[in-house]
C-alpha cells in the first residue's frame, strides 16, 4: 500500500520536492503575519500543533489521483474544476449552480469580504475568531465590529446581530476557530433571521471549515438556510481531508448570492492536482469517519491529561483545543517550541490561552509530556 509520507518516491520524477509528503500534508504556516509573528520554518523533529492541520494528510485515493493527474499538469484546470464542482454538489445534495470553488476556503472569505465590505459597509465578526475577514475588511477601509465571545467562549450571536445596522457582512465561524465552540442548528437559524432584520442587504457568511469533525446532535449545517437571500456557507478540503497545502475550498449559496462574489474570484483558482485529489476524497465514504474518529481519540486524550494536572478546557468540536495555560500565550509557546512542540499563536483577547492543534496519538502523547513539564515548571 502506498505510504502517504513516502508518496513522492513512487512518482519516479526528479525535482519533486514541491510534492513531498510534508508539503502535501501541508503542516505549516497559518496566519503568523496577521498576528505580527515571524514565520519560523519547520524544523526536522518538531511536532507541529500550530495550524489546525490534519496530521495524516490526504487519503490513499487522493494521492493516487494526484499521481494520475500529473499528465494534465500542463493544462489549464477548467475541466477538472467543473468536475470538482459537480462532485461537491452531488456530495452535498444541491444543484451545481449552488457551488462556487475557491483556492481553499480562504479565497471564499476574501471574495465575500471584498465584495460586501468597504466604507459605510461594516464587517460584524467575533473576537477571537479566524482573522482573515477582519484583515480583508480593514484593507477595504471598512469598519470592523468585533464582538467579544462570552465567558464560556461561545459566540455572542445576539450581540453580533444587534451590531448589524449598516453592516455589509456578518462572519460566523461554526465551530469557531480558535475556541472550538459550537452553536446548534436552531441557534444559527435564529441568528440568521435576526441579522437579516438588522441589515437586510448584508451577506451572512457561515464558515464551516470544521464541519466534518462535528458529532454534536444539536448541530445542523447552515446549508439548510442557503435558499434565503445572502446566506453563504464556506467549506474546505484543508481539514478533515488533509489537503491544506493543495488549496481547495468552496462556497455554497443560491446562484444570486454566489453572483455577488464572482467579481472577486481568481481565474483558474483550483489547480488540476487539488481538484483531482478532492474528487477522489469525496468518493471515499470512509475518509471523514476515519479522520473524525482518530481526531476525537487524540483530542480527548489530550484534554483529559491536561485536566488531570489542573488545566481543564471546554469541549471542542474541531481538531484543536483552547486551553487556559495560566501564563502568557507567547511564553508558553516559546517554552514548548524549545522542546520541539509548536503550538498556536496568540488570539487576543485570550492572551493566556493556547490553541493546541491535534496531531496523531503518538504526537499527542509526546506533546502532552512536554506540556506537563512546561506547565508544572511555570
Structure report:
By secondary structure, this protein is of the alpha/beta class. The chain contains twelve helices and eleven strands. The protein has two domains: 33-57 and 286-377, Alpha-Beta Complex (Aspartate Aminotransferase, domain 1); 65-283, 3-Layer(aba) Sandwich (Aspartate Aminotransferase, domain 2), CATH 3.40.640. It has helices at residues 21-25, 60-69, 78-92, 104-116, 132-139, 157-162, 185-198, 255-259, 272-283, 287-308, 329-338, 361-377; strands at 47-49, 99-102, 122-127, 144-148, 167-173, 203-207, 231-236, 249-252, 320-324, 341-343, 353-357. Strands 2-8-7-6-5-3-4 form a seven-stranded mixed beta sheet, with helices on both faces. A two-stranded parallel ribbon has the order 1-10. Strand 3, helix 5 (132-139) and strand 4 form a beta-alpha-beta unit. Helix 3 (78-92) runs parallel beside helix 9, helix 4 runs parallel beside helix 5 (132-139) and helix 10 (287-308) packs parallel to helix 12 (361-377). It is globular.
